[in-house]
Specification:
Elements (H helix, E strand, L loop, with lengths): L3 E3 L16 E5 L4 E6 L4 E5 L10 E5 L7 E2 L1 H13 L3 E6 L6 H18 L5 E6 L1 H11 L22 E4 L25 E6 L7 H11 L4 E6 L13 H17 L1
Parallel strand pairs: 5-7, 5-8, 8-9, 9-10, 10-11
Antiparallel strand pairs: 1-4, 2-3, 3-6, 4-7
């Protein structure tokens, strides 16, 4: 059984619902385990075999439109894949539904806890869809903590060492589908890998964010395909799902 670390032992910022057990549903049609309500956010730890442990870690943020979390498809399955590459992984169960600011508090707190509690060489983030939006917010708002400091963990810097955004959403919520205003704070963004498909309804997020990265001379790698849709994770049978992990592995090897 993998370790679980709850983020807020007492006071929780942007509290909209008292802590309770997570509510889980299994969608037979999509074969996805969905967390439909998270009120007590946590990180779940997945460790690689010691002989291949590379000392680095990745905080993984599943997607789900900030309404649910696609826990297995965009959380535990990518965690196990990264374990095989030598990374320790932490799957974030951030608050849903309808609590974006609470979710942002959660990712900042999770990153700081990981940095304080574990001795990793580098800590990166991987986000899918809404989880990609959350990772982008973390990486562009690392200079200020979004809640009152609680303990020594909160004194840690929460700037990731690298970031992977897979079919990210909501990066273009500015005027006329321009970049979201909450992504414009910090300019010294970590190396970034972005993957998406042109037939994705949220695809506009990618060129908008890429243009911002170009403007601030940030280090990034972009890979796109014509088709593949949205929300495929690493599942076989979709060309996009079978392509991005190969490209991401190569990129990770180049920066780590």
């Amino acid at each position: 059984m993998s370790e679980k670390i709850y983020l807020w032992e007492s006071e929780m910022p942007n509290l909209t619902k008292e802590k309770s057990e997570v509510k889980i549903e299994f969608d037979k049609e999509s074969n996805v385990t969905k967390l439909v309500e998270v009120s007590n956010p946590l990180i779940q730890v997945f460790k690689p075999e010691e002989k291949i442990n590379n000392g680095n870690a990745v905080l993984i943020c599943p997607g789900g439109s900030y309404q649910i979390l696609a826990l297995d498809k965009e959380g535990t399955e990518p965690a196990v894949w990264l374990n095989k590459l030598g990374y320790t992984t932490y799957v974030l169960q951030y608050r849903v539904p309808d609590n974006r600011e609470g979710a942002f508090n959660d990712i900042q707190r999770a990153f700081k806890i990981i940095k304080n509690k574990y001795n990793h060489t580098k800590i990166g983030v991987l986000g899918f869809s809404a989880g990609g939006n959350l990772c982008a917010r973390l990486s562009t708002n690392f200079s200020k903590t979004s809640y009152h400091l609680i303990d020594k963990a909160d004194k840690e810097n929460c700037k990731p060492d690298f970031m992977l955004l897979i079919y990210p959403a909501y990066l273009d919520e500015g005027k006329n589908k321009s970049i979201s205003q909450n992504l414009l704070n910090d300019k010294n963004i970590c190396p970034t890998f972005i993957f998406g498909t042109e037939d994705d309804v949220y695809f506009n997020s990618i060129p908008v964010f890429i243009n911002h990265l170009k403007e601030i001379n940030s280090n990034f790698e972009l890979n796109t395909l014509k088709s593949g849709g949205h929300g495929y994770g690493l599942r076989k049978g979709n060309i996009a799902a079978e392509t991005w992990p190969l490209l991401a592995k190569k990129w990770l090897n180049s920066i780590n």
